[in-house]
Amino acid sequence: MRKEIAATEVQELRLKFPGEAEFVFKDLDFSVQRGEHVLLLGPSGCGKSTLLQVLSGIIPDLVEIPMRTSAQQLPTSWRFLFQDPDTQFCMPYVDEELAFALENLGVSESEMSARMEAVLAKVGLELPELHVPIDSLSQGMKQRLALASVLLGDPEVLLLDEPSALLDPQGRKQIWQAIAKVAEDRTLIIVEHRIEELTALGLVDRVVLFGPDGRVLGEGAPDEVFDTYRSELAEFGIWYPGVWEEYFASEEGRRLLEPARNVRSTNGPGTVELRNFRGFRQGRPVIEAPQVTVRPGDWIAVTGPNGAGKSSLLLSLIGLLPTEGIYMLQGGRMETGKLSSRARRRQLERTSREIGFVFQNPEFQFVADRVADEVAFSLREDGLGTEVVHERVQVYLKQFGLTGLEGRHPYQLSLGQKRRLSVAAAAVREQRLLLLDEPTFGQDAANTFAILQLCEELRRRGTAILMVTHEERIAEQVATQHWEVRDGRIISLRKTPRAADPLAEPFAEREQRGRPEAEAVMTK
């Protein structure tokens, strides 16, 4: 039941980004009552994250974006959990970040360690010690740390911008359970695409459904909104219970699930071959691949818990982490071991030519000030003509739902839009190997399916794809192979029902037969 006093409110909100003709919000009235738990639901890019920043006062006090209201009430005590945890941190180490929050509350130093350990346990972040560099954590681990820091502030209002987007299924469950434990006497305003855990916990009182133009289409209890606006949810590609099943039953979904055509070159070398390969961070091995081969037309889903080494595998292949062992790329041997600065530059130049790469954090790869220029950058570097570049850029902008945003700075996009831009900029070059680190996180259903369909088009033309993902549907039904990573090792290689033919990897055969040598290969 709603209470009479608003925790935060805005009336007749008008807001648009500089240089754009369309308003993000036009005369929007929106309020949240104290103690209410509200979910903002809508397609990626409809303004949900922007609204959170308006309700907290971040816009326009800290981020200067033109806006106007007839009345506004800001919360008196609030904390904001951003989509990108890297934007949250002030300090370089875990204990220093948490201590910073506690110092602002006047907590004595003697009490800090116990509070830090308790809040980390609450969000499911296990660390060997508290004094750990934040940069050494995976994105999912960083998100847990960011939530822990927010909870230490003991705010009345929690503004949560996709807090589970970077987490594996177990991590998503832990995060929402942690939030549920502290939510009873707080106001929650949540933006989230994946809502299974929220609905299962009964955490949300009210769902507000936005359309692509920032208008409120409807609101009410979760079940009421899901039933009443089911056609709108499907039309706008919003996640809702049963959306995967409906997509797989559609013409596009059935095509995506067709058995993969055998596009492999049976006589030529693999796209990637690894033998006794290891990648290192700060001198210690963080990923091991005893014996694997990636061939043209393979679509490999790489899964495992946060911090297992999935991103490290991709960073090792691109040459951003030191490596050792045998690494063959397109039939040519890559340099591994201790490299000189010149050799490392030479290595990175080669991988940038032959591999398309998407970072887990999309901002790490942006090099241009305009969305269109970001997509065009690598094509211009390849020396393609102006007309060819323009035509291909327009195709990819349309395919990734970025048309109309050509002139916006990449940093002014929502996280979902940033992710689509990073994938578009990597895929537009159409290289023979594409490495994707969580390309579908922060995406609505429509854009998730669009990314998968593009990957399938590239795969059918012979591109090999390695995709780190927490989405089980992709790993089990869409990809042609499924690699599982745990504790810094690839522990399982297996084909999926879409595979054109059985895997021929000796390691996989040994693993399936359970021979002792398979265990020996995987033992450090």
UniProtKB/TrEMBL annotation:
Coiled coil: none
Entries under SUPFAM superfamilies matching the protein: P-loop containing nucleoside triphosphate hydrolases
A Pfam family: ABC_tran
Keywords, comma-separated and alphabetical: ATP-binding, Cell membrane, Membrane, Nucleotide-binding, Translocase, Transport
UniProt membrane topology term: Peripheral membrane protein
SMART domains associated with the record: AAA
Region (Disordered): 501-524
Name of the protein: Energy-coupling factor ABC transporter ATP-binding protein
